[in-house]
């Protein structure tokens, strides 16, 4: 990860991680999508996954400055501008400062479900990445 989790995200995750009931997980997922219209299927799928699956691998963790500085793989970072999980501008700035091979795009008017909020921008960003290589 390019930026730490926001304090709001960490607080919001407590209940669903400790007691992963359908209701707790759905509440978190609706908040994650900022209760925007059109996320019902995303929320339902994510809720089922969170309530019914326990991850055996470690959670995502913040990459150290040294690890990021050593990254030499072209990387595209699409960041929801309205994300509640991270501080979007902080993530983009940190990546730019430490890693020249990371291209960060802030996707305006997008929640964590940015693929559904801004499919046009995501498709364009991915197409440019494929063409530019």
Give an overview of the whole structure.
This protein is mainly alpha-helical and 133 residues long. The chain folds into 2 domains: 7-52, no CATH class; 65-132, no CATH class. The chain contains 7 helices and 2 strands, in the order ααααβαβαα. The chain has a two-stranded parallel ribbon with strand order 1-2. β1 (75-80), α5 and β2 form a beta-alpha-beta unit. The longest helix is centred in the C-terminal third of the chain and has 14 residues, at 119-132. The chain is globular, with a radius of gyration of 16 Å. It comes from Brevibacterium picturae.
Describe the secondary structure blueprint for this structure.
Layout: H1 7-18, H2 22-32, H3 40-52, H4 65-69, E1 75-80, H5 88-98, E2 102-107, H6 114-117, H7 119-132
Parallel strand pairs: 1-2
Helix pairs in contact: 1-2, 2-3
Q: Major β-sheet, in short?
A: 2 strands, parallel
Mean of pLDDT: 83
Unreliable segments of 5+ consecutive residues: none
The global form is globular
Q: What is the first-to-last residue Cα distance?
A: 23 Å
- Number of structural units classed as domains: 2
Question: What's the gyration radius in Å?
Answer: 16 Å
Structural class: mainly alpha
N to C succession of SSEs = HHHHEHEHH
State which percent range the strand residues make up: 5-15%
How much helix is in the residues?
40-55%
Number of strands: 2
Oligomeric category: single chain
Task: Kindly report the spatial arrangement of strands forming the biggest sheet.
Answer: 1-2
Contiguous helical run count:
7
């Amino acid at each position: 990860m390019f930026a730490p989790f926001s304090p709001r995200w960490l607080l919001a995750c407590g209940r669903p991680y400790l007691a992963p009931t359908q209701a707790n997980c759905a509440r978190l997922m609706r908040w994650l999508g900022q209760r925007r219209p059109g996320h019902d299927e995303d929320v339902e799928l994510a809720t089922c996954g969170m309530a019914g699956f326990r991850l055996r691998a470690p959670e995502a963790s913040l990459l150290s400055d040294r690890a990021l500085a050593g990254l030499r793989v072209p990387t595209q970072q699409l960041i929801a501008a309205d994300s509640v999980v991270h501080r979007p501008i902080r993530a983009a700035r940190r990546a730019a400062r430490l890693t020249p091979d990371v291209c960060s795009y802030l996707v305006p008017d997008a929640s964590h479900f940015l693929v559904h909020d801004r499919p046009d921008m995501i498709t364009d960003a991915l197409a440019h990445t494929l063409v530019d290589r």
